[in-house]
Amino acid sequence: MALLLTLARGAVTGVGKRPSPRAGLPDVRLSESEVRIDPARIAAYARVCGFPAPGGGADLLPLTYPHILGFPLAARIMAARGFPLPLMGLVHTSVDIVAHAPLTLANRPELVVHAEELRAHRRGTEVVMVTEARLGGEAVWTDRSAYLARHRVDEETAPAAEPAAPPVPLPEVETWRLPADLGRRHARVSGDYNPIHLHPVTARPLGFPRAIVHGMWTVARCVAAAPGATRITADFRRPVLLPSTVAYCAEGPRFEVRSRAGLHVTGLTAS
User: Fold this and answer.
1) CA-to-CA distance for 60 and 62, rounded, in angstroms?
2) Which end of the chain, N or C, is surrounded by fewer C-beta atoms within 10 Å?
3) What is the C-alpha to C-alpha distance for residues 112 and 96, in angstroms, rounded to an integer?
4) Residue 249: in which H helix or E strand, if any?
């Protein structure tokens, strides 16, 4: 409920904001101590994202789950009037998650979140949000996520386009059929009710013909397909519209998510 109120506040405070990479970032660091990890919520998250069902209290958390725990703090920072980008409509463009040490259902980590960088993007302005999970004062898990506010940019000063996809796709490993309600299902287990993920009616005013799947669902599903991974980096190249069918392709540490529309995600995992 608190996160829903934060998202609603972000919808209000975002009105009239003019995103720019030259704007200043607020010097704010939010934290929450002794965060309880709910086994029932983990089980629901695992079902939606394709992880094995959790068992006893010593079970490792899914690599991506601390992002879900820390997102309410990140949303509070991004929903503030002084934050330079509007929270509603932000698109996740990249993520780098590292587990420095194991985190289990029995742990009670401290979460610390701050905004680190504002930068130009060829389609608008990006911000990098950094989330840490700490045990005994030491970071055991780190997430650096970039979010894009789309707006018109000066073509002469905009960064160059991203490099083209490799000419030879990676071998296909699995096919995933994504239902139209996947965004709503992931919102229920993550708390991220950004309208771009919920329904065509709420996605269209923000520039999408249909709802798009959460980037963190795609990353979580890729981690679930690579058991034992302790690091994942991913770049989101093209939104995945819902419903759709995509292919998970992998070879060694490299992976891709593709569909008939093209390349959606590229990344690396490490153990």
Assistant:
1) 6
2) N
3) 16
4) strand 244-251
